[in-house]
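agent> fetching stored inputs for the orotidine-5'-monophosphate docking request
agent> found them:
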Amino acid sequence: MTQQSLIFVALDYDNAESAWPLIDKLSPQQCGLKVGKELFTSAGPDFVRELVQRGFKVFLDLKFHDIPNTVNKAVRAAAELGVWMVNVHASGGRRMLEAARDAVADIPNRPYVIAVTVLTSMSAEDLQEVGIDVPPAEHVLKLAKLTQAAGLDGVVCSAWEAEAIAATCGAGFLRVTPGIRPVGSEQGDQRRVMTPPEAAALGIEVLVIGRPITQAPDPVAALSEIQASLTA
Ligand SMILES: O=C(O)c1cc(=O)[nH]c(=O)n1[C@@H]1O[C@H](COP(=O)(O)O)[C@@H](O)[C@H]1O
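agent> prediction call returned; pasting tokens
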């Protein structure tokens, strides 16, 4: 993993046709690509294989959350697509996380397997409504420790929790942070947000950025601007 934060562009398009014009203008040296539930459901595994074929690091963001056996098989299928990273939900529990880890154990050049802690769209009030009466930062840390104990490679969290995770889990445990918003861009459904330079200054390994790039009038220029802001 490099010192500088890697940017993954979240390709949240409703089909492959809408995604290709941007992908065609990007290079694997510039950024990674995240394929989530919307695009994967519509475009399927062949689309992911094509991105891998073109040399992109692909983060397959399907956030598996199911019984251990099912998650094991799903993570294995994701790994066989050649993706760079795949995720599950940490709240699936220790045995489910271990099953996700075991799924890739014997795969050469295996993908990173990481776990979502608390979605960046959730505030303390949202958490309370689902029965979690502690601040997001506390619950994130608890799930990060569980994820590490289960042998996974890192977590998805908000940038606000990234320092505490590094202090507790150590260097080498990946922090992948969505909820990144350049100054002036719309927060939308995200709640625990931070700007790209602030997140990069924390040494966060992977920044996931979607709408501020994909919905910009010139997505490539928006990406370049964000990239320049990281080192400014
Ligand atoms: O796992 C994820 O990628 C993820 C976890 C999380 O807690 N929050 C979150 O926003 N994401 C994803 O990150 C992307 C963020 O996109 P934007 O909000 O448009 O920048 C979306 O594709 C989300 O599905």
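agent> quick read of the result: Residues 86 and 113 are 5 Å apart (CA to CA).
agent> awaiting further instructions
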